[in-house]
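Minutes, methods subgroup
Present: GH (chair), OT, SY

1. OT presented the first of two proteins processed in the latest run. Sequence and structure tokens recorded below as shown on screen.
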Amino acid sequence: MKKILSLILALLMTAGAASVFAGCSESTDNSDAGETTGTQNANQTDVQVPAEEETEFIDPFADTDFGGRDFRVYTSVDNTDATNGNAFIQGTGELNGEAVNDAVFERNSKVCDLLNISLSFIEANLTYSNHEATIKKQIMAGSDDWDVMANDIMAFGSLARDGYLHNIYSNEILDLSKSYWYADAMRDCQFIEGGMYILIGDYFTDALQSAHALYSNKNLINDYYNDPNYLQNMTFEGKWTFDSMIDVINTVMLDTDGDGTMKEGDRFGFTCIGMWGSMIPFLIGTDIQFIERTENGPQYCFNNERSVKILEKLNELFYADGSLTTLADYSDAGLRIVFGAGQSLIIGYNRLGDLAKMRDIEFTIGILPYPKLDEDQQNYVSSLHDTSEVGAIPMTLPPESMEFCTTCLEVFCRETGKTVIPKYYEEGLKVKYSNGQDDARLIDLIHDSISSPFPVAFNGTLSGFLLGTCFSTPLGSHSSDFASAYKKSEKVGTKALEKVYNAFQQNLDNGN
């Protein structure tokens, strides 16, 4: 207000006017400081104050010159997982008219020109069963072959524990206040304060495309509820819960051959492949908190009534009459075939990026987040998978190269957020593959609710205590007895927690 009054007085003085301002009250208006929003009284003439000029963006890396140095990216190219991030990192290496690929090519060229670097890609064709051991063996060999790695989050959780990754907690180049870094998710992956080893940001775009989502047949929804957006509306109202989902899938199920037995080929309300991978996003979607970080290290905090209810609801869902968890074609592709044939209202296990694989399906596809435990839960939570590809810096990178590496990562993340993500998110998912404004809003909802990667990063290092022995194992036996499952494995889980904490503490004591 002082600035506004000063500008007004200056204009009036220039015009030679003499006027006295009285009765000016303090304003709480949030309008731009460069313009007035009304009159002080009925007799006062409005005075238009010119808006202040926007400050021109000055790129802090504009004068950076690495003399053509190679930025070496160890990028994952395996096709064994549901999603793969290499297309967003390496791309085809040429313009081909495809929006996302061309954005990747142009981003790579822009960053290379800005920093005066070149790019080298070392392709890693690793599987779920050998990624951790292979990378560990390569790092132990001591060869400085890569600046940064992109691979599965569960592998990096274990490699961080064992001291094979650089700690970027105190790095001053990576600006985690920027939206192109998933700062909250990176902090969630800290086992103890001061140890940050896992990089999650726009450059590692698989973190977005591998987020779990449910898909529904909106034609079937319309047949039963006279509104194709029935489930979407329920979601926006905060009423998409375990109970509402169970009610819907049991309503839509149909014994199509009339033999009195529900089996593959009949129409189910919900279909998935198995209970382990399919259960994880439902569990994390309940906003469960597994640990609390204390002065004495992390402590388990999920032995409570909420976990009891979660396991009960998981059993009700997966063993509902309208649910099918086994398929002859036991793959995510086989699951989409069943879905496309109209044999399931909703399918699980698939990721946000899988929407691009459903272009041949003739009916209208609806997108849904995973349900809340109940309506008392404040927010929906979308889960990453343990094979979501994120980033890490290997310990083989010399400390004197950290400035180079993190500068490249910061600029690549920044430019990905500006160019690649909009092409993928807006043109790819929303416009090219989805149907209607409500679906676009739901993609927004899923994107904005990605959080809590701690359990998928560290479940393996904690002997499977978080996701397996306390939830997946009893669920597989159709048991709702959480207390017994927890008590049976508590000693093993607690011992694993202490061991992992001590390993991370030793890393910090050793300066990493």
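2. SY then presented the second protein from the same run.
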Amino acid sequence: MAGVVQTLWRHPIKSHGREELDRVTLTEGKTMPWDRRWAVAHEGARTDGASWASCANFSRGSKAAELMAIHAQTDVDSGLVTLSHPKRPDLAFDPDQSADDFLQWVRPLMPSNRAQSTRLVRVPDRGMTDTDYPSISLLNVSSLRALSQKAGAPLQATRFRTNIVMEGLGPWEEFEWIGKRLAIGSAEVEVTERIERCMATTANPATGARDVDTLGALEDGWGHRDFGVYAIVTKTGQIACGDKIKVL
């Protein structure tokens, strides 16, 4: 046994809210269902929203730290997403039908000197991940503890907007999995690469304020900005909190 699933997360609107799950079904070759289902294009975006585009086209926490404090709750039957933030009233809306309501809601959270959010985009059957292939992300809490010690502050896994948080591993053990397959619940994934982190991780997910130099701690301690790993789903199956993770 390599570890167990501690928590599961999805982010219905890229960089605009996180949602905790008890269980989820992963599908071969797909992103986590409803994860990064929508993305928020800004006024400088060079994408028509019809296909995958890089994160530079979208409003995100690396440029607008306040976005990191958004929580989300999704009703997959109705299509409604409810967003909450300590500085904003709750908003329940259908991203496919009420984009204007969302844009008005998020505007006060955007710095005036940054490109402003203009529209929601959605690629059919494809989450707008940071990778140009459909991926999920994994984070090791032992590595998080090591980084917290180096940074001199307790760090939350939610800073890193991951999908699967794992416990029961050694620090940085996940970096040894590149190219290997994992069994998680009844699903299987193949670990593809490390995740290079950005300024979004310096913001507190409870307040949206930049309060810890996570990137400096990574560079000072380990000589890189990598934290967590990406993977692709290679076998359809269900995963749940408490499921074992095995290296195949």
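Chair's summary of item 2: The two ends are 10 Å apart (CA to CA).
Next meeting: continue with the remaining queue.
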